[in-house]
Design goal:
By secondary structure, the protein is α/β, with parallel strands linked by helices. The protein has a domain of 206 residues: Rossmann fold (3-Layer(aba) Sandwich). The chain contains eleven helices and 14 strands. It has a seven-stranded parallel β-sheet, sandwiched between helices. Helix 6 links the parallel strand 5 and strand 6. Helix 1 packs parallel to helix 2. The protein is globular. It starts with a strand and ends in a 19-residue tail after the last helix. The structure holds nicotinamide-adenine-dinucleotide and uridine-diphosphate-N-acetylglucosamine. It comes from Bradyrhizobium jicamae. This is UDP-glucose 4-epimerase. It is an enzyme of class 5 (isomerase).
Length: 347
């Protein structure tokens, strides 16, 4: 049995499918602070079986210990956390408490229960401003906001834990920019309020829920002047967790980028989304967003060598799958699942 923390969330629900499809039993722990349990009902429709669900907080060490024992957990994939950069600047202590203290409690419960295999969701944000590109795992770390620093401190903590006891099997996965949705259109990203990230915003403009996209700067030193990122399909990202889990059959600590190695600009994303949706996406060029870098993309070589993992899906597929999710679920998990509208998705 694999314990998946944050398993009702955007990435977690896709990891849950990858695990169930691979034949694992899964227990999800989530406090639902940024998710909806309906995601797991949808997971059941896709996979034909469901994870065990426990509504609990990772900071509740006793509850986590009970779940580890009662479910016979052998490994933990830890995604639970707060993730909004802007909010982390305003409420830094909430981020340290939830993310850092939450991970400390989780690890403490795991130690007591004798479960020593852990895959952790880190982020490319730990690299900060790129000193060179593509970003490989040896690039110096220097996160520029509290959210990024929680990921950095957790990484350091896990490295110290491994140094103190090399029975641990720890995989630190640094995600680049997750995008897209499961191809069924049953599950996807369901941001509460105004989304922070590019794809959900573009998709809401295409759907007519927003008038236009504000492009944060067109004066970067890039071919079209807009920012470049490494967008990775969430289903590819999910499969990276399985590869990491298999790799951790041996004790060790591994840190790997999960990215495609390709960079796409904001305007390339807009044009691709227009092509797959057949909808115009009006945009306006605005000021640069504070804290943004011009270009960020991964060197995915190490993940390929060490885990035998690489991404397979294109930007077209990310946009098409995101659009299908948007069309089928105009109100996210709070609404009903509409029938498939295949002819309106071009990829
Ligand atoms: P998400 O908000 O959809 O999922 C996180 C889940 O964790 C949510 O279901 C939330 O309810 C749960 N959670 C939060 N705090 C909890 C706690 N104390 N106890 C129990 N459950 C708790 O976000 P996501 O995009 O799926 O991200 C998953 C992980 O990946 C996060 O750790 C995030 O920092 C990391 N990450 C995400 C991105 C991204 O762009 N989505 C990029 C890099 C890293
Ligand atoms: C952001 C976070 C990063 C996190 C990542 C994935 C910041 C500073 N960084 O990175 O920590 O790991 O999300 O969750 O928030 N853009 C627009 N208009 C918009 C929204 C975005 O032009 O309305 C542009 C941005 O300037 C950027 C690109 O789109 O060039 C991608 O933005 P976003 O999806 O927010 O991801 P990141 O900035 O890479």
């Amino acid at each position: 049995m694999i314990l998946l923390t944050g398993g009702a969330g955007y990435i977690g629900s896709h990891v849950c499918i990858a695990l169930l499809d691979a034949g694992f039993d899964v227990a999800v722990v989530d406090n639902l602070c940024n998710s909806n349990k309906a995601s797991l009902e949808r997971v059941q429709s896709i996979c034909g079986r469901s994870p065990v669900f426990r509504h609990a907080d990772i900071r509740d060490e006793a509850a986590i210990y009970d779940i580890l024992q009662a479910c016979g957990v052998t490994a933990v994939i830890h995604l639970a956390g707060l993730k909004a950069v802007g909010e982390s600047n305003v409420r830094p202590m909430a981020y340290y408490e939830n993310n850092v203290q939450g991970t400390m409690r989780l690890v403490s419960a795991m130690k007591r229960a004798g479960v020593k295999t852990l895959v952790f969701s880190s982020s490319a944000t730990v690299y900060g401003v790129p000193a060179y590109l593509p970003l490989d795992e040896k690039h110096p770390l220097g996160p520029t906001n509290p959210y990024g620093r929680t990921k950095f401190f957790i990484e350091e903590m896990l490295k110290d834990l491994y140094k103190s006891d090399d029975d641990w099997r720890i995989g630190i996965l640094r995600y680049f920019n997750p995008a897209g949705a499961h191809e069924s259109g049953f599950i996807g990203e369901d941001p509460l309020g105004v989304p922070n990230n590019l794809l959900p915003l573009v998709s809401q403009v295409a759907a007519g829920r927003r008038e236009k996209l504000l492009v944060y700067g067109s004066d970067y030193d890039t071919p079209d002047g807009t920012g470049i990122r490494d967008f990775i399909h969430v289903v590819d990202l999910a499969s990276g967790h399985l590869s990491a889990l298999c790799h951790l059959a041996q004790p060790g600590l591994l840190t790997a980028n999960l990215g495609t190695g390709n960079g796409n600009s904001v305007l390339e994303v807009v044009r691709t989304f227009e092509a797959v949706s057949g909808k115009a996406i009006p945009y306006e060029i605005g000021q640069r967003r504070e804290g943004d870098v011009a270009i960020c993309y991964a060197d995915p070589t190490f993940a390929k060598q060490a885990l035998g993992w690489s991404s397979a899906r294109s930007l077209e597929q990310m946009c098409a799958d995101h659009w299908r999710w948007q069309l089928r679920n105009p109100d996210g998990y709070r609404g009903i699942l509409l029938p498939n509208v295949r002819e309106t998705v071009q990829a």
